[in-house]
Amino acid sequence: xxxxxxxxxxxxxxxxxxxxxxxxxxxxxxxxxxxxxxxxxxxxxxxxxxxxxxxxxxxxxxxxxxxxxxxxxxxxxxxxxxxxxxxxxxxxxxxxxxxxxxxxxxxxxxxxxxxxxxxxxxxxxxxxxxxxxxxxxxxxxxxxxxxxxxxxxxxxxxxxxxxxxxxxxxxxxxxxxxxxxxxxxxxxxxxxxxxxxxxxxxxxxxxxxxxxxxxxxxxxxxxxxxxxxxxxxxxxxxxxxxxxxxxxxxxxxxxxxxxxxxxxxxxxxxxxxxxxxxxxxxxxxxxxxxxxxxxxxxxxxxxxxxxxxxxxxxxxxxxxxxxxxxxxxxx
Length: 331
Description:
Strands 2, 3, 4, 6, 7, 10, 11, 12 and 13 form a nine-stranded mixed sheet that branches. Strands 1-5 form a two-stranded parallel ribbon. α3 (87-98) runs parallel beside α7. By secondary structure, the chain is α/β, with parallel strands linked by helices. The chain has helices at residues 5-14, 49-56, 87-98, 171-181, 190-196, 225-238, 250-261, 284-288, 299-319, 321-324, and strands at 25-26, 29-33, 71-73, 78-82, 103-104, 109-118, 128-136, 140-142, 155-157, 166-168, 210-217, 243-247, 266-275. The chain has one domain: Rossmann fold (3-Layer(aba) Sandwich). Helix content is 31%, strand content 21%. It is globular, with a radius of gyration of 20 Å. It comes from Roseivivax halodurans JCM 10272. Pfam families: NUP (PF06516). One of its GO terms (molecular function) is catalytic activity. This is Purine nucleoside permease. InterPro entries: Nucleoside_phosphorylase_sf (IPR035994), Pur_nuclsid_perm (IPR009486).
């Protein structure tokens, strides 16, 4: 017992002041973004700035031990934080926040938001996707293409991860979120339009739109048609919807939320700022590390689109909390 006493004392001293006499704040919507570029206001926006400016600029930051950044909560029950990039950083922050005794997540909706990549036959720059499934890109075995007959799979799932490698999100909640997005006007840019023309796929050339499908979570920032096909193969292997988004956090965050609250109120919203492979006139390496002037463009517009689409959901929940508190009205 004695050897653990310093740790207990440290936690007692560093945990934000909170007593049993205080009622924890009821969280209606928690918004989790993964990174910010600079300041929280007034400069080039990363994933969190628009949420902060719109909902949280008047809130006091709350330091949470174990979280990468503070949590902000407004008086309407909207909370948010920058969780960190990658599976470990984001999920460990999420667990710390969920265990904060000052916040009551019993009825909360979780909106995970950020930028991502998309295959050019499924999405386009500036498009925004609600996940129907989350799949972990890892948790299996991989090998080099020259070690098996040509055309054979290069990935095999490993036993023991069946409950955490794939999550089907609540279809009724996703449908409701898509419905709320249907009248949201998305922005575009000339730079993004010009970049799209380099791709032959009809979908890649489209103006931004809202779409659904599987979001693939992996710390590996994979690029190229071969790995894109492998991601699609994995979704088929797991019985999920088509792979449409590559990102680095959502499946890991889902595992954390699932342990404490289940995933019925979890949504993943991503905007495409790049394609997961090059156009016919560039190699995969050139696409991964583009020369000046060869980037996709449309980052700021995508950030704006993510916020516009997600805010339609946040506003609906907060403004009609009596209907949403017990669950999605479509359930």
